[in-house]
Amino acid sequence: MQTDDDKMAADTSPPKPLRKGLGRGETYSLYLMVVAIVGFFVARLPVLASRFFDVDELEHTHAAWCVFKGLVPYRDFFEHHTPWYYYLLSPFFRWFDVAGSFESARHFLIFGRVLSSLLTVLSALVIIVIGRLLASNKVGLLAALLLVSQPVVFQKTVEMRPDVFALPFFLGCLALLVCGLDRNAGSTGRSVRCLVGAGLCLGAAIMCTQKMLFVIPGLASGLAVWALFAGPRTEGNGRVRVRMVSTIACGLAIGVPAALTWAMFALGHGGYAFIANNFLLNSKWTHVSHDQLLKVLETSWPVLILCLLGISVSLYRFFRNQRRRYGELVLCTTLLGLIIGIPVVPGAHRQYYLMLLPIVCLFAAQGLCFLIELARRPWLLGVAILPLAILPLSALVEAYKQPNTAQLAQLRYVLESTKPTDVVMDGIQGMGLFRPHAIYFFFLHAESLEMLTREQLDVYVDELESGKVRPRLIALDENLIALGTRFLHFVRTNYESADGFFYFSKQELH
């Protein structure tokens, strides 16, 4: 039996758009978008094996391999990313003899990129669902096409990184929010379930990368507006109270994945290290870089302009209509919060924009569809897709010109010149991949070096000089050189090199 609350929720829910038959031009446009989405995914396939490896990829791969070998992140080796991606990737090492065979190692790296592509396909499917909930299949397909074709999205989603695993969780959160807020005005069990599910999805995304924490302020602001003002002015306090409880339940659900993950590490005596490395350390990160924002603006400016139009139309309709779509409002406030977070994040690298661009593409799709509706020429949608593909296609062509041949040759040299048990010391080049690392900080780059004191660095030099740690091979990049004169003296005294980069232990050679 339907309750009074259910009837009221049904009365206050937004009206569903009338279903109209699609014209031939619009149908062709939908087919064209499907073909284009599939085409972009097919075009990236050769890139998975040939494009150069970002050093972050090798870092994350080595961390996952360490987990596979039984080491505990944060306690046994340094990491400052939340751990779910490493535990996702680690079981697949059972299929590859990465430590004993270069070809197996190369195949695993390709497999990791294939996995990232599959996660991106999942993200595209979820964004289609969000677009359909907001407006129509046309908006969903267009948003997915815009997303997968953005140069920044392409560059980062072909790589092995936690942000790609976090993306479908984040989009799942947005889909549940849109469904819970717009299909039911906040009083029924369905709305509560959607909000709790959204919180769990966002909590899972945070356990993939803590950058997802920057979603919370904007999302919470939008939910607060919904909780206080979503119903009619004549509604009782009980309805407001139900929406407030739903919002609080969503917030509590966000913390559930983190609490369970922390408990797992606490049982292994790594609970404090989990908090210290992932949150306390990152809050003190001193390296600041915002040059990636300019690259995003250069490559995505057409979509950003359409996004501004889409947001303007959405807000105009929100304030003009009595039955308001609060799902769109939450998307707006979430996007605004992420934009405000750009100058706050010490290192807002391109992967940070994987959170912003899905929402940007959703509003851009609505903005473009609004223009097509004004023109009353549905076939123009297919024409408009062509100029929007210019920058994405140029980025795709550029990716084919960035081979990983030199990287793979160096990795082959290391794996064939050392045994699986040999310790390899590396800075940030990733040459210690699938080999035991020498020090707790198995990767050292400019950002992590700024966080270490001279005393901390000297401890590692002491261990090398005392023989407590004795690498068979040292890949002497600029980051290791930054360890100082004592370290360089140790290397030149105890190691020899034929190329000035790879240094082999004299004791092992003779």
Observed structural traits:
single chain, 510 residues, mainly alpha, 2 domains, four-stranded mixed sheet, 4 strands, globular, disordered N terminus
Describe this structure in words.
The protein has two domains: 352 residues, no CATH class; 105 residues, no CATH class. The protein is 67% helix and 3% strand. The protein contains 24 helices and four strands. It has a four-stranded mixed beta sheet with strand order 1-2-4-3. Helix 7 packs across helix 16. The N terminus is likely disordered.
SS strand fraction: under 5%
Rounded mean pLDDT is: 86
How many DSSP E strands?
Answer: 4
Tertiary shape? globular
What's the SSE pattern? Answer: HHHHHHHHHHHHHHHHHHHEHHEHHEEH
In angstroms, what separates the terminal alpha carbons? 86 Å
Largest sheet: 4 strands, mixed
Summarize the topology.
Elements: H1 4-12, H2 24-43, H3 45-50, H4 55-68, H5 84-89, H6 102-134, H7 137-149, H8 151-157, H9 162-182, H10 189-206, H11 215-229, H12 237-267, H13 271-283, H14 291-320, H15 326-341, H16 353-375, H17 380-388, H18 390-399, H19 405-417, E1 424-426, H20 446-451, H21 454-466, E2 473-475, H22 478-481, H23 485-494, E3 495-497, E4 502-505, H24 506-509
Parallel strand pairs: 1-2
Antiparallel strand pairs: 2-4, 3-4
Helix pairs in contact: 2-7, 2-17, 6-7, 6-9, 7-16, 9-10, 9-15, 10-12, 11-12, 11-15, 12-13, 14-15, 14-16, 15-16
